[in-house]
Amino acid sequence: MTTLDTPFPPAALTVLDVIRSRRTVDISLLKPDAVPREVVEAILEAGTWAPNHGRTEPWRFTVFTGEGRAQLAEVFAQAYAAGSAPDREDGAALEAQRARAWRAPLWISLELHMPEKPKMPEWEEQAAVACAAQNMWLAATAFGLAGKWVSGPVMVSPVAAELLGAPKLLGLLFLGYPAGELPSSTRAPLSEKVTWVE
């Protein structure tokens, strides 16, 4: 439960507790169990309710689960091969990229689709996609899932974006049920980060 002393409405306490229990979890710490489709759809729906200054809804998502991860495996391999890593032509390195796709039961791409005639600067639209990702991550947490937003060179590669039909890729969320207890975490006190003007 929350450590706040002020009596807040139950809904507020639930939201605050979900925020505080969200964790970044390495892929090796996830169970292979599939995530039910209705849970995935609820997570995606949460993403679409993100704030968006221009009401352009610039987010698009591609979901990879089950056998569909074979397509993601090829995206990873092709993006890696097109990159600058010294071993980009090494068969074992490409197989390692393919294998990565199978290590989490659920992957969701975070795609930026700018309007044809932009009303807002790109940074604002990127921020909207980030808010959508956070909404999805919090919804996933409420469903007992954990994971990570990955944004390494392969995950934001223009090659990967093109293969997904996305103008720009801001990374992927991988999610699954944790295999054990989630790690604890702390944050520095507000007094170190907030200035009050009253």
Quick one: CATH class of the domain at 25-62 and 106-179? Alpha Beta
CATH level 4 superfamily of the domain at 25-62 and 106-179:
NADH Oxidase
Low-confidence runs: none
Amount of helix: 25-40%
Q: What's the number of extended β-strand segments?
A: 5
Mean pLDDT comes to 93
Cofactor: FMN
Family: Belongs to the nitroreductase family.
Domain Nitroreductase: 19-177
Protein name: Putative NAD(P)H nitroreductase
Can you give a write-up of this model?
The chain is α+β, with helices and mostly antiparallel strands and 198 residues long. It is 38% helix and 13% strand. The protein has helices at residues 10-21, 37-48, 69-81, 91-100, 122-142, 158-164, and strands spanning 59-60, 63-65, 106-112, 146-150, 168-176. Helix 2 packs antiparallel against helix 5, helix 3 (69-81) runs antiparallel to helix 4 (91-100) and helix 3 (69-81) runs antiparallel to helix 6 (158-164). The longest helix has 21 residues, at 122-142. The mean pLDDT is 93.
